[in-house]
Amino acid sequence: MLQFLLFVYGSCLGSFLCAAASRYATHDSLLFPASHCDWCLTPLAYWQMVPGISYWWLRGRCAYCQFPIPPETIVTEFGCGLLLATWHHPLDTFMIGWLLLWIYAALCDLRTQTFPAWVGAASFIFVPHAPTFTTISLLLLAYGAIRLIWPRWPHPWLGDGDLEFISSYWIAWGSLATSRWLSTACLLAWLVHPPRLHQPFPFVPALVASAWLWWVLLA
Q: What's residue 79's pLDDT?
């Protein structure tokens, strides 16, 4: 029963993260106006905002203008539900909170290929495992180096946000887990975005999907 309730709460949280990422992309306030279709701007009824169920009921389209609802909405709601359902111990809060934070970043990256700078700083609070002085020091050093060096790099092959995510994962989990995680993320990115010369694509969603996959499988 507890896991079911956690799944429901997680789905609601996933729905909120989708809405927050959408507001980030359009530069709207998180609180105003009320939830609406991103295309026709018609306010949504309560039955159109039930996580998971409404997407299937509406067949993935706005009830008013029939514009497609982004498929990542249902994926995020279901994925966050499963993620929260893996909570078994207070220490799991760190990893789940850290992943939820980066899921928000991934949704922003998917829409704009950017995400708020505060996400990297806020991830200090949710370092996987209980944070230690050494962990925090290494993260500060890594983030400081990225912020100092990367803007001056002539042709960066990876975004600074991607590096922040990778460094925090490596510091928390070690080289072996990071290599496994990165390999899976690269495979997912290659399947979704076949290689195209000099054409950037959002990589944070692939990193998050890989991290989510390994956590849910091993939880």
A: 94
DSSP the chain: -HHHHHHHHHHHHHHHHHHHHHHHHHT--SSSS-SB-TTT-PBPPGGG-STTHHHHHTTTB-TTT-PBPPTHHHHHHHHHHHHHHT--STTHHHHHHHHHHHHHHHHHHHHHS---THHHHHTTTT-SSS--HHHHHHHHHHHHHHHHHGGG-SS-SS-HHHHHHHHHHHHHH-HHHHHHHHHHHHHHHHHHS---TT-----HHHHHHHHHHHHHHH-
For 178, other C-beta atoms within 10 Å of its C-beta total 16
Of 17-26, 85-94, 147-156, the range with the lowest mean pLDDT is 147-156
How far, in Å, CA of 73 to CA of 79, rounded? Answer: 10
How many degrees, rounded to 5, is the angle at CA 136 between CA 133 and CA 141? 120
13-27, 85-99, 158-172, 176-190: least confident range: 158-172
pTM listed for this prediction: 0.84
Gyration radius (Cα) of the chain, Å: 18
For the chain, how many residues are written?
219
**Whether the predicted pLDDT of 184 surpasses 80:** yes
Looking at residue 183, what is its pLDDT?
93
Tokens read off for 57? 């009921």
Measured at the CA of 102, the angle between CA 145 and CA 90, to 5 degrees, comes to 105
